[in-house]
Amino acid sequence: MLKGVAASPGIAIGKVFLYTKKFAEINTQSIDEAMVEDEIAKFENSIKLTIEQIEKIKEKSEREFGKDKAAIFEAHLMLVNDSEFHDSVKNMIKNEHVTADNAVNQVIEQHASMMESLDDKYLKERAVDLRDVGSRIINNLFRIINVNLSELYEKVIIIAKDLTPSDTATMRKEMVLGFATDIGGRTSHTAIMARSLEIPAVVGTGSVTQSVVGGETAIIDGNEGIVIINPDDVTLKEYEEKLNKYKMKVERLKELKDLPAMTTDGERSMLAANIGTPNDVEGALKNGAEGIGLFRTEFLYMNRNNFPTEEEQFEAYKYVAEKMNGKPVTIRTLDIGGDKKLPYLNMPDEMNPFLGYRAIRLCLDEKEMFKIQLRALLRASAYGNILIMYPMISSVVEVRKANAILNEVKEELDAKGVKYDKNIKVGVMIEIPSAAVTADIIAKEVDFFSIGTNDLCQYTLAVDRMNEKIKDYYKPFNLAILRLIKNVIDASHKEGIFTAMCGEMAGDPLTTVILLGLGLNEFSMSASSIPTIKNIIRNVSKKKAQEFAKVVMEMSTPDEIEEASRKFLNEITGD
Fold first, then answer.
1. Do residues 139 and 146 lie in contact, with contact meaning Cβ atoms separated by under 8 Å?
2. What is the CA radius of gyration of the chain?
3. C-alpha span between 28 and 11 (Å, rounded)
4. Under 8 Å between Cβ of 335 and 274
5. Exposure pattern of 185-197 as b/e (b: 16+ CB <10 Å)?
6. 457 an active-site residue?
7. Is the pLDDT of residue 19 over 90?
8. Is the pTM for the entire model greater than 0.85?
9. Which one of 76, 189, 363, 457 is the catalytic residue?
10. pLDDT tier for residue 114 given thresholds of 50, 70 and 90
11. Is 189 a catalytic residue?
12. Which tens digit of pLDDT belongs to each residue from 175-213?
């Protein structure tokens, strides 16, 4: 049994297909001057072949997964077509007298290593994409053809060191029961694609490929992040029963799609979805989202070479608003900084970027950039129920400054006769302890709160949640966190406004009853988590939730609270 990262939920049992690739052996010997032009010609032919292959993969990916999931291949094509990349390779062949494969390998590795050295986790994982493209070009130079996952003829569990975007896009998905990899994280393309396909997956096992030769029976538990190779009869039977129960549960939860998230004594909560791109709206509606609780607009700014225009932003916000057909759409203003950087925005190097120049602080400083986004948001508000939300608020001072800029934009639009929602609601994210403590003051100036528990936990507990050495200190069940959440909810209700939550706690089944008992009005989460959370709410009374929350608030340790929550959840749902 191996433990890895639970990348995509579900359980799969089946035959192992060990996916290995042949890689060309790079020729590091020098070449004669007479061979230079031949090597350049080989490189150019390889580029043409690579472009043809990626374009076919991109077309297939768009048909099966949608344009947003196929966007990575657009980036692959940009690299393969990049004249600077071509020039770097050709110059290396000419000036250093190296083979085409050696030149491609060195140029790709130079860029990939640079990306891996960055603090940004997302950009680090994009180094995989660079190497994927480089391997394809080099293999084409040697005319090496690897096994094509689109030609799988039986249902299998794929075991691989890693699965690149090209691999997951081309594989014959109806033949893939699940997959497990040696490397990868929850934000890798492998994990993203697995969740999109709803295929159980475990990544980052470290050594699963060393445990198989192909043909073995394997179990993939994407709920717990477990891979079992050659299970004994008892374990196999146990997981067959788990798989049947899981399938029944998924089907049962689908029946809740159009039902309200209402407690047994008639108290209704709102369940919304977190999205990163306009295309994610389909998944939100499919899972019964009653609104969008968090639209992370920074993704409109990333993976490009310049700022998105006002028109581009307007169209994106308008699309989501219209698709949600009157349901509330909470759009967070630009939250860049920390581990999210823009290559075209000059930002200072900082000792503690998570405590530095980011989010609302950056926007208040870069006023024109902020106004462009606010104009796009206001214009889009004429087409649906849009709410504006400011991130990383630490005090009421920032709220007032941001609202002053918003009012400037409103006046400019009024002067031009541009339509927008005159009563648009404006709220803030509560993710800094100082904002949670002074929520009673901030509540007088906004229309709603949304608690961002990921950063609230990180800042309150002084724990870098990305640091493996101290990950056990990151405890959402810590009483300090629950007390801050209660303070925020109480302060909002006293002023007659609502409190939502868009952090990971909102989609955690173990915290649902506590948050319900504390009076949380809206839970916003990954779309696929909505049916599970709805089921919990529909199986408990508000009165019982309040009683349980009161008991929990008297406990002293996170482990004690978590265990009590697990026991209570099992009592009401059997999970």
1. yes
2. 26
3. 45
4. no
5. beebbbbbbbbbb
6. no
7. no
8. no
9. 189
10. confident
11. yes
12. 999 999 988 766 466 776 676 677 899 988 888 999 988
